[in-house]
C-alpha cells in the first residue's frame, strides 16, 4: 500500500457540511457564520459560564521535545476522536497554524496522518482571516506611532530609540528582522531602527488569546505599552487613540472558528500565539466556547510541559478561572532516547538503555503536573522504530508512579488507535474531585514569581538577574505592572536555559537576561536566552515543492 | 431631519440573505461559497462565454476630477438601482476598497448616501480576504528573493541593486516607503535598499485583475520580472519556483465576491488595482461573471476618462474581448467650475461663467469616448450648491453634441433618483450596433502606442522621452516585451502631465520620465510624473474618530 501524505489523506475525506458539526454541538444553523461549507465562525453569545463549570477541560502537553516535536496536535485530535468513539461528547480546541512556516520548513499544524482537522489546506493557509486581522491591527498601531513621530500637530515627543512596538508579517522572512525605516527625506517620516516579527509573536495575538470578551479586548489593546518619550513618560496605544480602530479590525477575529476532524467530530481552532515569548495556547474565548458546547474539551499548549503547561495553567487558567481535570503528557520513545544521551544518528534505533536513562525527563514532568494538583496520563506517541521493550519499560515505570501510560496510535488509526488513551483520560477526569492550584500568586513580587517557576518547575537552584534584567525590574515597578502574570521565554530543548542539558538537569542556575512587558496581555516576559521571533526560509523552501493544478487542487502542502 | 452618515444609512438597512441575491442571478444555493449571511464567493464555472456576448457592459467614468472625486462609484451603484427600477436586470461590478485609506483620510469606497453596497463595514475592512491573499503572495515572492540572495545552494547571483520587486502592505504607512533591510549580521540576510508599496499597487493585484482563469493566473505569476543578476540576466518569479505557492495563496481570491446594494440588487466586488500605475478597474473574471449572470453590468474605472476609460478599453476590453455598449461620463458642476478657472474657495458657489469656461473638459472627454466607437451619456452628479442655470447649460451644450446629459440623484434618492439616467443608458445601449475599437494595436511599437494615447486622448502635440525612459525602451526591447499593452501613469488632475493645466489644455508636450515593466500583468508603465504608491496618514488619522461598542457596532467609518 502506498504511504499517503497528510494532504492526500485529508483530500481523500469527503467532508460533511459544517452545519452538521454545529448540530452535534447543539448550535442552531442561524448562529453559524459560514465561511464556505466547511468552516464557520461562532458568535460569542454561545458562551455559557454555567456549562463551562460542568464540563471537562483536558490539556495535552509533552515532555521536553526534540526538534521534530512530540506530536501534541496529532495526539489532541486523535484523543478527541477516541473519546467520541467511547461515547463521550468531545471537542478539540486548538491553535491556528501560522502561514509563515507553511512555506518554510516546519509545514502546517493541522495534525497528521489519520488525526487531522480539515479542510487542512484552508486551515493552513488564510483560514478565516484571523491572522491577517491581527497583523493589520498590529501594523495600524505601528503606522500611528510613526505618524505621531513626524507629526506637527500632536507630537508626543516619542523617543525613536525607545519604541518597543514592532511591525509583524506572517511570513518567514529573515531580512525583515532588522531594518531602518523612514528614509528618503522629510516626506517619508523620521528615520529609525525597526524590525518585523512573525505575526504569532505579535502582542495583539497574545491579547486576542487572553481577552474574555470584546470589551476586555478593547481595553487590553488600549493598554499596549508603546515606548517612552524623550522625558521618559510611558506612551500607550490609548494615547494614540488606537484601540477602537484596532478593535474594529478584530471584530470578526474574536469569534472562534469551527471545523471538523477526519472522523466528523467538532474542532474549534482559534488564535495561535508563539510558545516562546507568549502563552502558546489558543484563545480563552475558544476554550470557553468549547466548554459551553461540549462535555470534553481537548486542548494543547506549545513546547514541553515546563513551558506550555506551566503557562497554560498559571496564566490562562488563572485569568479565565478554568479548572482542568487532567493533563496528557505526550512522550515519544525517540525523545526519551535523546534525553538518555542518544546522538542524533542513534535516535531512530531501539535502545532500552537510552530510554531508561531518559525516563527522568518524563518523571520530572509528571512531578510538575502534580504540583498543580492535577493528575497526568502519559500518551506514548509511537513510531515503527519503537521496540516492545522500550514501550513496556515506560508503561511499567509510570505504573510505579501511579500514572497510566498508554500507547497512542491516532496518527495511524485515528480514533480506533486512541480508545485506550481516551478511557485512561476519562478515568482520571472522573476520579478528580479537587481544584487545580497555580504555582504562584499573580500578586506576589515579580522576582519571587520568576524564582518559583525556575525552582519548582525547571528544578533550578537559583535565578541570576543580569544587569539589564534588574533595570527592567525597576521599570516594571515604576510602571505599576508588578501584579502581571509571568510568561517565561526559555529554550524548549531543556528544563534549564542551556539547550544542551537534556534529561533532568540538576545543580544549575538560570539567568534572566532582560524582561519585556506585554501590558495589554498583562504578562511580563523574562528572557532567558535568544528568542527567535522571525524565522527564515531554508535553502530549499517548502514552497518550491508545492503545486496547484488548474482546478485548484493543491499538492505538496504539509 | 438629521443628516445621516453613510454608515448610519447602511446600518439602518436590514439586509436580505445573500442566497436571495444569488437567486436573482439564477445561482443555485449550493454554488454560493458563503462568508456569513451577506457575502459569498462565486465559483468560476458560472462564467459563460456565450452569455457574455449577449449581455450589455456599461462603463462609468468621469471628467477630469477634483480631489474630492466625481462620485463614480456612487453613480455606478445608483445607476444599477435605476436600471432595476425600470425593469432591467442589472448588476454593479466594482472594485474592492483598500484598507489603508479607510484609516487615513479618504475613507472607504462602497458608494455613498442611498447608493451603497452593503455590508459596508465588511466591504471596507477585510471583506473576504482577497487583499490579504494578494499581499501574502506578493511578500512570499519577496521573501524568496531575499532568501535566494543569501543562499549558498541556489544563488542566482542577483544584483541587490537591481531588484524591482517590492514588498506591500495594505496600510497608509509613509515610513515604509524607503527602508533598508537585511541588517544585523550574517544571520539576517544581505543588506539592501527596499520599500513597501500599498497592496493595491502590487503587480499581483494587477495580475489577478487581468487573469482570465486559474491557469492564466499561474502563468502570469511566473512571468513576474524580479530583477537582474550581476551579469544582467533577467530573473523571473518562475526562476524562484514561486508561481505555484503564490497561486495557492490566491486560490480563493480569484473568485468574485457577491454582495447587495441598498435596494437589494446584486453587486459583484472583486479586485482593486491602483488607477495610476495600474489599470484601476475590477477583475476581468468579475466582469465576465457579471455578464454571464446579468443583462446589464455597470462597472467603473479609476480617475478621469483619460486614464480610467482609456485603460479599461485599451487594456482590459482588448485582453478580455469585451464589447462595452455605452460609457457614462460623470461630471459635477463643482469640477466644471474648477476647469473654468474657479479657485478653491469659489468651487461651491454657483457661477455660470466658470461652468461655461470649464465645459471644454467634458467636451474633450466626450470626443475621446467616441474615438473608441462608443456613445457616451453624461451623468450630472448634483449637489445642493448647484444652480438650475448651470445644470441647464450642461444639458443644452451636450444636446448640441448629440449627447444626453441627465441629472443623477442616486446619492440622495437611490434608484428613484436615477431612473432617467438609466433610461438614457438603455437608449444608447439599444441603439448600439457597432463594435468598440481600441485606440492602438498592442502589436505596434511601444513608442508609437504611447504617442497615440498622448496625442489622441490627452491632446498633446508630442511626447518627450527622458534619457532614462529611452534606456528603459531598450530594456523592454531586449526582454521582448514590445507587444505589451500600455498602462499610462499620469496625474489624474489634468489631461496633460502638469496637474495645474485644467480645462482642455492645448499646445503641450508630455514627458515620459521612465518606463516600468509589469511582465505578469503584460503591460508596460510609462511614468509621466511622481507616482504615489504608499500614502501616508494625515495629522489626525480617520482611525482616531472611529469607535466600536461592546456589541461590535461601529461608528465613524466612512
From TrEMBL, chains A, B:
<dbReference type="Pfam" id="PF01268">
    <property type="entry name" value="FTHFS"/>
</dbReference>
<dbReference type="GO" id="GO:0035999">
    <property type="term" value="P:tetrahydrofolate interconversion"/>
</dbReference>
<keyword id="KW-0067">ATP-binding</keyword>
<dbReference type="GO" id="GO:0004329">
    <property type="term" value="F:formate-tetrahydrofolate ligase activity"/>
</dbReference>
<comment type="similarity">
    <text>Belongs to the formate--tetrahydrofolate ligase family.</text>
</comment>
<protein>
    <recommendedName>
        <fullName>Formate--tetrahydrofolate ligase</fullName>
        <ecNumber>6.3.4.3</ecNumber>
    </recommendedName>
</protein>
<keyword id="KW-0554">One-carbon metabolism</keyword>
<keyword id="KW-0547">Nucleotide-binding</keyword>
<comment type="pathway">
    <text>One-carbon metabolism; tetrahydrofolate interconversion.</text>
</comment>
<dbReference type="InterPro" id="IPR027417">
    <property type="entry name" value="P-loop_NTPase"/>
</dbReference>
<dbReference type="InterPro" id="IPR000559">
    <property type="entry name" value="Formate_THF_ligase"/>
</dbReference>
<keyword id="KW-0436">Ligase</keyword>
<dbReference type="InterPro" id="IPR020628">
    <property type="entry name" value="Formate_THF_ligase_CS"/>
</dbReference>
<dbReference type="GO" id="GO:0005524">
    <property type="term" value="F:ATP binding"/>
</dbReference>
<feature type="binding site">
    <location>
        <begin position="66"/>
        <end position="73"/>
    </location>
    <ligand>
        <name>ATP</name>
    </ligand>
</feature>
Amino acid at each position: 500500500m502506498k504511504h499517503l501524505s497528510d494532504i492526500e489523506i485529508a483530500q481523500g475525506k469527503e467532508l460533511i457540511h459544517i452545519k452538521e458539526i454545529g448540530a452535534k454541538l447543539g448550535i442552531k444553523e442561524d448562529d453559524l457564520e459560514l465561511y464556505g461549507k466547511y468552516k464557520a465562525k461562532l458568535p460569542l453569545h454561545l458562551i455559557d459560564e454555567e456549562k463551562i463549570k460542568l464540563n471537562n477541560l483536558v490539556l495535552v502537553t509533552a515532555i521536553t521535545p526534540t526538534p521534530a516535536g512530540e506530536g501534541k496536535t496529532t495526539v489532541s485530535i486523535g484523543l478527541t476522536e477516541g473519546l467520541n468513539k467511547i461515547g463521550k461528547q468531545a471537542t478539540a480546541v486548538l491553535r491556528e497554524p501560522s502561514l509563515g512556516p507553511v512555506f518554510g520548513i516546519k509545514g502546517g499544524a493541522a495534525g497528521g496522518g489519520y488525526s487531522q482537522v480539515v479542510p487542512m489546506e484552508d486551515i493552513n493557509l488564510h483560514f478565516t482571516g484571523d491572522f491577517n486581522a491581527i497583523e493589520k491591527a498590529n501594523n495600524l498601531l505601528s503606522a500611528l506611532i510613526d505618524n505621531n513621530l513626524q507629526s506637527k500637530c500632536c507630537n508626543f515627543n516619542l523617543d525613536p530609540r525607545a519604541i518597543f512596538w514592532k511591525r509583524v508579517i506572517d511570513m518567514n522572512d529573515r531580512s525583515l528582522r532588522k531594518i531602518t525605516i523612514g528614509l528618503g527625506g522629510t516626506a517619508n517620516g523620521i528615520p529609525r531602527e525597526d524590525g518585523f516579527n512573525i505575526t504569532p509573536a505579535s502582542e495583539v495575538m497574545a491579547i486576542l488569546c487572553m481577552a474574555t470578551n470584546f470589551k476586555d479586548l478593547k481595553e487590553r489593546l488600549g493598554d499596549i505599552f508603546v515606548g517612552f518619550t524623550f522625558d521618559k513618560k510611558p506612551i500607550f496605544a490609548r494615547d494614540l487613540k488606537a484601540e477602537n480602530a484596532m478593535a474594529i479590525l478584530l471584530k470578526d477575529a474574536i469569534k472562534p472558528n469551527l471545523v471538523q476532524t477526519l472522523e466528523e467530530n467538532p474542532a474549534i481552532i482559534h488564535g495561535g500565539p508563539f510558545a516562546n515569548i507568549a502563552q502558546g495556547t489558543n484563545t480563552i474565548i475558544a476554550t470557553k466556547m468549547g466548554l459551553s458546547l461540549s462535555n470534553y474539551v481537548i486542548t494543547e499548549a506549545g513546547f514541553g510541559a515546563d513551558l506550555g503547561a506551566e503557562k497554560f495553567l498559571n496564566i490562562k487558567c488563572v485569568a479565565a478561572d478554568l479548572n482542568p481535570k487532567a493533563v496528557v503528557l505526550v512522550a515519544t520513545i525517540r525523545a526519551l532516547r535523546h534525553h538518555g544521551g542518544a546522538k542524533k544518528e542513534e535516535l531512530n534505533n531501539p535502545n532500552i538503555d537510552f530510554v531508561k536513562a531518559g525516563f527522568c525527563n518524563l518523571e520530572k514532568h509528571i512531578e510538575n503536573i502534580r504540583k498543580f494538583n492535577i493528575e497526568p496520563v502519559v500518551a506514548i506517541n509511537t513510531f515503527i522504530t519503537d521496540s516492545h521493550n522500550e514501550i513496556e519499560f515506560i508503561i511499567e515505570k509510570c505504573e510505579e508512579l501511579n500514572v497510566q501510560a498508554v500507547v497512542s496510535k491516532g496518527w495511524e488509526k485515528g480514533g480506533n488507535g486512541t480508545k485506550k488513551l481516551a478511557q485512561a483520560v476519562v478515568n482520571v477526569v472522573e476520579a478528580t474531585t479537587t481544584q487545580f492550584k497555580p504555582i504562584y500568586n499573580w500578586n506576589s513580587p515579580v522576582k519571587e514569581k520568576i524564582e518559583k517557576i525556575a525552582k519548582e518547575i525547571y528544578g533550578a537552584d537559583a535565578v541570576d538577574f543580569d544587569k539589564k534584567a534588574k533595570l527592567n525590574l525597576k521599570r516594571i515597578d515604576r510602571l505599576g505592572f508588578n501584579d502581571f502574570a509571568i510568561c517565561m521565554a526559555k529554550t524548549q530543548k531543556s528544563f534549564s536555559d542551556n539547550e544542551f542539558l537534556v534529561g533532568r538537569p540538576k545543580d544549575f542556575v538560570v539567568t534572566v537576561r532582560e524582561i519585556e512587558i506585554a501590558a495589554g496581555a498583562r504578562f511580563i516576559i523574562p528572557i532567558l536566552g535568544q528568542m527567535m521571533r522571525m524565522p527564515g526560509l531554508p535553502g530549499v523552501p517548502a514552497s518550491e515543492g508545492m503545486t496547484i493544478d488548474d482546478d485548484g487542487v493543491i499538492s505538496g502542502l504539509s
